Amino acid sequence: xxxxxxxxxxxxxxxxxxxxxxxxxxxxxxxxxxxxxxxxxxxxxxxxxxxxxxxxxxxxxxxxxxxxxxxxxxxxxxxxxxxxxxxxxxxxxxxxxxxxxxxxxxxxxxxxxxxxxxxxxxx
Length: 123
Fold this sequence. Notes:
Elements lengths: L4 E4 L5 E3 L16 E2 L5 E2 L21 E2 L4 E3 L18 E3 L2 E2 L6 E2 L3 E2 L6 H7 L1
Antiparallel strand pairs: 1-2, 3-4, 5-10, 6-7, 8-9
């Protein structure tokens, strides 16, 4: 059985395993189960969270968040060390979100039918 889930349909009826959705809802823990109420079941057990919680979709919500780093280097090309700890300084790429102004790692949620590589480029 394919694990393809769609969102709530009009009237609040959950439609599971709709092939036209083309959304990969396989969790990193394995195939996602559906309960008697036709909604995904958390493979890790009860959490006390009802419905989707703060997630955008039912079931696994796949994200693509690339981590890009480099060692900070001086004008001479040598690695720069922190004055206090003496350790090399690691720099990373971040973005400032337009919706709330907070700093974040670039990336985003994988859209239905989208390749992860496309999500990373869009991020």
